[in-house]
Specification:
The structure is a homodimer of 320-residue chains.
Chain A: H1 14-33, E1 37-38, E2 44-46, H2 47-54, E3 62-64, E4 70-73, H3 78-88, E5 96-105, E6 117-126, H4 132-148, E7 154-159, H5 162-169, H6 174-185, H7 189-197, H8 203-211, E8 216-217, H9 230-242, H10 245-248, E9 251-254, E10 267-273, E11 276-285, E12 299-305, H11 306-319
Parallel strand pairs in A: 1-5, 7-9
Antiparallel strand pairs in A: 2-4, 3-4, 5-6, 6-12, 7-10, 8-9, 10-11, 11-12
Helix pairs in contact in A: 1-4, 5-6, 6-7
Amino acid sequence: MSERTPSGTRDVLPDEMRELRALTDRTRGTFEAAGYGEVYTPALEFERDSNAATGPGAASYRMFDERGNVLVLRSDMTVPIARLVGTRYSATPGPLRFCYVAHSYRSVGSHRGHAREVLQAGVELIGAPAPEGTVEALTVLCDALDAAGLTGYRVGVGDATLYPVLLERLGVAAERRSEILRDLSVGDFVGVESQLSWLGLAPEDAELLISVPRMRGGPELLAGIDPRLADAAGGLRQVYDALPPRVAERVIFDFGLVRNLGYYTGVLFQVYDDAIGEPIGSGGRYDELLAQFGRPEPAVGFALNVELLHTAVAGEERDG
Amino acid sequence: MSERTPSGTRDVLPDEMRELRALTDRTRGTFEAAGYGEVYTPALEFERDSNAATGPGAASYRMFDERGNVLVLRSDMTVPIARLVGTRYSATPGPLRFCYVAHSYRSVGSHRGHAREVLQAGVELIGAPAPEGTVEALTVLCDALDAAGLTGYRVGVGDATLYPVLLERLGVAAERRSEILRDLSVGDFVGVESQLSWLGLAPEDAELLISVPRMRGGPELLAGIDPRLADAAGGLRQVYDALPPRVAERVIFDFGLVRNLGYYTGVLFQVYDDAIGEPIGSGGRYDELLAQFGRPEPAVGFALNVELLHTAVAGEERDG
C-alpha cells in the first residue's frame, strides 16, 4: 500500500484524540493558572521574520503569496510570539506571559521517524531576567508535567554559554568552535573528540574539553568546578537555590546540553522520562531575540511535545 | 508600518483566544454528544489525494518533501477525512461519524479581507444516505449553533443538482452549463443573465432559468413547482418533512445555492445571520467522494467558520 500521509505526519483517530485533548486542556489549564494567556499566530508567516530571528534556512517550507512575498510554515512558536510582542505589545510594560498549543513544521531529512508536524504546548515569559524568570519557567514546566500525570520525569539543566566560553578561554578559534558545538548539539561525542584532537591543545585542556560535556549530576557538580566554568556554574547555582523543592528534586545538571537554535543565550533545559527515548520538551533563555523585534528584553520559555508527552504518560502507566 | 502577518492571516490575543476556545469547546461538545469522534489529519498532505477528490488546483500552497513528492496544505477537512475513512476504516461498517476543529488554507487572490487561514469546526457523516443522513447533519448543525449561543440564524437549503439538471433539460450545452454555474456560485446573477441571453432559448425557458436562482422562501416554495425541478424539490421535501421542528423553523429554501466545490451531489446548506455579512458555515451531500478513496458510500457534512461564528455571536449580543 502507498503511504497514507506524508512521512513524519499521521492521522489521529478519536480514542487518541480524546486523550490528546484532555492532555492539552490540563497543560493549558496549568499555564493559564500561572498567568499565561493563550495566543495563536498564523501557521504561515513572512520568511523575513523567521530569518531575522534564527538566520536563513530555519524554516523548511517556503511558498509565495499573491504579491511575491516569501511565506514559510512556522518552525516554532517562540519566534512568532517574539514578533507578536514587538508589534502588538510594544508599549505594554512587562513581564508578559503567553502560552500556546499549536503545530509547528520541520523538515524530516533522511531520518525515519522524525516528525514533520509537531504539536507543541509551551510558554514564553518576556521581560523577566535570570534567575527569577528561569525559576518561574522551570516551576511552570514541572507543574504542567505533574498536571499531565507524568511521575518519573527529570529536567536536565545546562547553560548555552558554558561550553562556548570554555572553548574560547582555551584559545579555540571561532570557526572551530562552531563546528565542535554543532557536533555536540546532536550528541556526537566522537566527533567532538576527533575535532579536539587536531587542535594541538595542552593535554590537560583537551581532557577538560572532553570531560565537561559528559558531566551530569546533582548540585554537587557546581561545587569545586573548574574556575573557567565559574560564570555559567554561578548562574546555574542561583537558579537552583531559588527553585521550590518539588522542582529542585527533578533537576539534573547536564553540562553537555547545547541547542542548535541560534537564539538561546543562557540556561537551557530538557525534559527526560525513562518511558521514552527522546526529550519530551525543552526550553531556555533567549535574552537577545526580542531585540530583533524592537523590544530588547530578557526572556525565557519552553515547549512540550504533546504527542511524546502522551506516549510517556501512557508508557509510565503501562510499566506501572 | 509593514504588515505584521501575511494578508488573510492574523494574530489572536488572549482575550479573544479565551472566547474562541470556549466556542470550540461548546461546538465540539455538541458534536461528541451526537456521537461524532474528533479526528486530526496532517496540515501537509499529498497533492495526489487533494487532486483525486477535487481536481487539480484545489490546494493553493505546494511544497516538495525530501523525496520529491508534492505536498499541499489542506484546503478543507472533508477530503482528508474521506481519505482517512478509505485507509483506516475500510473494513468498519458505517455509518461513521467524525468531527474536527482545525485550520484550512486558501489562496486569498486579490480579494482584501479574505482569509488565508481558516479555523473550522465541522462534522462528516459517512454511510448515511438522504434523507436521514441529511436530517441528522442539519440537526447537529443547529444544535451546535444553539450551543454557541447564536439566536437569529437561518439555514439556507438548496440542491446542487437542481439548477444543472434544469439547464440540461432545457437543452443548454455542457460547456455553457459549467460557465453559468461558475457565475452562479459566486452570486453573479448579471453574468448568468448575460450568458443566458446568448443561448437562443424560448422566452419562457429563459425566464424560468433567470427566476429559479432567485427563488427563496419557506416550504410553500416546494409546492406548485415547475415539474422540471420536481426531482430536487422532492428530495428537499423529504428532508424538510423529517426535520425536528426546532430545525425546520430555521430553514429557508434557496434555489440559487450552488457551491463551486466539485464534490457536492445533492442537498446543500449555508448558515446566515443578520449580525454578519457572509455565511458562517456551509455543507451538503457528497455521495461520490468516498468512492475516490475506495469506499463508495453516501456522505454528508458541514463546516462552521469559527471566527465568523464568534463575530456573529458577539454582534448579536451587541445589537441586543
